[in-house]
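dude i think i finally got it to work??
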Amino acid sequence: METAQKVLLTDSISKNTEMIKVQLGHSSDLFERELVLPYLHRKVHLIYLDGINDTSKIEDYILSPLAAISIKEEQSLISVIDYLRLQVIQSINIVTETAKDKIVRMILEGKTAIFIEEEATCLLADTAKWPERSAPEPKVQRTSTGPDIAFNENGTYNLSLIRKTIKNPLLRVEKVTNPNIQTSISMVFIEGKVDKEILNEVRKKMDKINIPVILDVNYLEESLTDNTSSSFPLTLSSDRPDVVCAEVLSGKIAIIVDGTQFVLTLPSVFIQFFQSPDDYYILNRSTHTRRLGRLFFFMLSVLFPGLYISFTLYHPGLIPTSYWLGSLLKGKSFLFRPLLKYLYFFGSSSLLQKAPSVLLQEWY
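look at this
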């Protein structure tokens, strides 16, 4: 397959801006601001998308400094691009680019493109301001103890929550650079604790994904576990920062997808699905009892229907009907003794006590 040839900018500012506007379909939220640099006598065009850019940043970090260029600064000028990038524009993150496709992609990521007359290079300043909500409460893994904060749909915010908890210089954040994926995805792991073989395998599978927009972590889960024969889940998703941080500290890989509040961790083991965040905040032996209880009820729910069907359909003679009927009427069955009744209702009440913390706060 032949690689598509890159379209580069020219030294004509009108052609460059028109090329970008055509690529974006002359969208109604695509704004263009024209001005002339004082003392340099060169036109400058700013192109950005309304709604995802902070106009106050554009005004303070780009327009105001450009309008304040003085003669003394102009006298020591060597390269206009380097001069504006290093001395004038005050944005923290500013890069140069000459390829049209990359410029369009950066504009879609919330950057402001700065085109200068007679220059075949574009400056891109980070002025993004994505709409987001404040820190929500966990929806799925609700607990009565521990931090009551969850991830939201902003990938940068989610990463900052992990950084806030894990202040380790070995914490690595690796951005996925698959050209087929337009969504921002980051992998988080601790150098020295993560399994290198698993990490390399995840990198290879991430590079093979051909999904333009990742709406949720489940898209990645299907792609990362497509060649496995296991019937059990190999990944764990959570909206709690403490759970994700605990997984990362144990050597797992966390995958943050911009646009969803759930973070994917892998690889996962079977016993993890019987653990609760409450277990990490209660320092007594009841933690082990609850975990064993969850495992017991799980095995009971799996085995009891099969045993019931096997006894009633294929081995009815093993359970005398007269014995069961007589026991139920007299209340003398071993299964219905007061002690076992107490254990049964105690287990049921424990399960019902856990239910409100899992359910949503409001029901409409």
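Residues 360-364 have pLDDT under 50 and may be disordered.
im so relieved honestly
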